[in-house]
């Protein structure tokens, strides 16, 4: 029997258009090297509009966006109401410090799907249009001037498979030096 604090998928979301939030889905299909089937951000090359403007031929390192549901709990404490998919993520997790994992970590989602972490999501100003002041909650600067980004992590699909709420997540750390995630 698994504990209440096991690492699991809470929700999955996708959208076929470039909108801020993604509606929840009963399951998503991750396609190797592409992303979530039917999602506007899926593709071998960059799909985020900001990155396309810079270099449309660059590899897509932001195929699948993951956010911990614990962030929503923290935001609720500060007066914000945010639900899975509303910050544009494809996979909402529970029980994992996603932003604390190193570059190249592989997350096994359910039976077959595997994503490899490529970096931190750098939240954009559209977040304040969604809920005023939310950007400041997602990018903090501590007393020493260090910036902490809390808007989740980005990844590429290493192995295809279906992902749905309730799927267990297994963490596979990369071998060798553990490099912290940076903005991608």
From TrEMBL:
Residue ranges of every copy of the MOSC domain listed in the record: 23-172
Gene3D superfamilies: PK beta-barrel domain-like
Record's signal peptide: none
InterPro entries tied to this protein: MoCF_Sase_C, MOSC_domain, Pyrv_Knase-like_insert_dom_sf
Designated name of the protein: MOSC domain-containing protein
Lineage: Bacteria, Bacillati, Actinomycetota, Actinomycetes, Micrococcales
